[in-house]
Write a structure and sequence with these properties.
27% of the residues lie in helices and 28% in strands. The protein is α/β, with parallel strands linked by helices and 383 residues long. The chain is elongated, with a radius of gyration of 25 Å. The strands form 3 sheets. Strands 1, 2, 3, 6, 10 and 11 form a 6-stranded mixed β-sheet that branches. It has a 6-stranded mixed β-sheet with strand order 13-12-14-17-15-16, sandwiched between helices. Strand 7 and strand 8 form a beta hairpin. The two termini are 37 Å apart.
Length: 383
């Protein structure tokens, strides 16, 4: 009985949002109500942009959060009214920060504000910017990445009987709540999974002098393990010798999934994948670290690892960068993938093959991990 009552309430709220959206008058300033209210916010109006004859206008942004009373799943609905039919498409991007980009063909912003802050539950803000006199880019800033299939972008036609205009609709499902973390400073007792990139049937990059990436990555990872063991951490390696993790000649997805699964099953505190870079341009050089912002801590981990390696190795800073790499996306804990240096660069290949440089990079990685835990401890478990 309780489930039936809750379902009825949800249906009632959804119908209320649908029927009230177009009829509501736009206030002169943004107004926010609690999730489930009929209308959560409407932007105030400003001077409209000029458009060419035949073009349409985007006239109003409205938004509301919905919560399924049975499953508890959350969804954000953004509605942008238009003066006529338009074409839309959307894509998610991890760079420079997680965002959903919607291209609107056939309309530019009219007499409406072009930026509005949201509540941050599923999205932080929405903005509209005309690309030319007929097309607009809508950007929805997200606190966390969403997968393909977790959002929809579509249009609805004018509904004269119900006094609704043409509309652009953006639905975004709330990402699965990330695990809550309560980090403490120090390395002792921390479960850390180290993933030497490549191995077994997959050599990775090969330098001009014949150095194989899988051997360099494993050598550094073993040095990192020794340092972490000494500091009292619980270290788990995806592989401790030259072998495939899933099995010889497995598909890339199977191999990478096997590595991520080890970290997830062990409920590791962090996951670090160790790699060496390569490029067609032999002069490409430097150190970089990649993250996928699935928790609030992924960038923090990557940035500390990058700082540690730069201080230890002294190479060019190529940055802390977002990426869609499988092992950092599919692990449930904060994760990062480091690219220590370029194996395709003759000078850096020589460094990577050197036990002295390998030790320096291992010490830099450990320093980065320790700095991460120290900084994460100050953020608290809810950050």
């Amino acid at each position: 009985m309780l489930r039936r009552v809750l379902c009825f309430l949800v249906i009632s709220v959804v119908l209320a949002v649908s029927s009230a959206g177009y009829a509501a008058k736009a206030p002169t300033s943004p107004v926010a109500y609690q999730p489930g209210s009929k209308l959560l916010a409407v932007v105030g109006k400003t001077a409209g942009a000029s458009i060419t004859p035949g073009g349409q206008q985007l006239t109003q942004i409205r938004w509301a959060n919905h919560t399924d009373a049975v499953t508890g799943a959350g969804r954000l609905r953004l509605v942008i009214d238009t003066t006529g039919p338009v074409q839309v498409s959307g894509t998610v991007s991890a760079s420079p920060t997680p965002r959903l980009v919607v291209n609107v063909k056939g309309a530019v912003p009219g007499q409406t504000d072009t930026e509005i802050d949201l509540d941050g539950r599923i999205a932080d803000s929405i903005s509209m910017k005309s690309e030319d006199d007929r097309n607009t880019v809508i950007t929805v800033e997200l606190p966390l990445m969403v997968d393909e299939g977790e959002y929809k972008v579509f249009t609805l036609p004018q509904d004269i009987p119900n006094k609704k205009p043409n509309r652009v609709v953006i639905d975004i499902n709330q990402p699965l709540p990330p695990a809550k973390f309560n980090f403490t400073a120090g390395l002792k007792g921390k479960t850390i999974v180290l993933d030497p990139g490549h191995g077994g049937s997959d050599p990775g990059a090969v330098g001009l002098a014949g150095s194989r990436e899988k051997n360099v990555n494993l050598a550094v990872a073993l040095r990192v393990k020794a340092l972490l063991d000494k500091a009292g951490a619980k270290v788990v390696m995806t592989h401790q010798d030259d072998r495939d993790v899933f099995g010889p000649n497995a598909s890339a997805v199977d191999e990478l999934k096997a590595r991520a699964t080890i970290a997830n099953v062990k409920k590791a505190d962090i996951f670090v994948s160790i790699h060496s870079n390569a490029a067609a341009n032999r002069s490409a050089d430097g150190t970089s670290t990649y993250f996928y912002q699935k928790t609030r801590y992924d960038y923090l981990l990557a940035n500390n690892l990058q700082a540690g390696m730069l201080e230890a190795g002294g190479l060019k800073d190529k940055g802390t960068l977002p990426a869609n790499f499988y092992v950092i996306k599919r692990t449930t804990m904060p994760a990062a993938l480091v690219e220590m240096a370029f194996l395709s660069n003759p000078a850096e290949e020589k460094l990577l093959a050197s036990p002295q440089f390998q030790q320096k990079m291992a010490e830099g990685i450990v320093q980065g991990i320790e700095s991460f835990f120290a900084q994460a401890a100050t953020k608290g478990g809810e950050w």
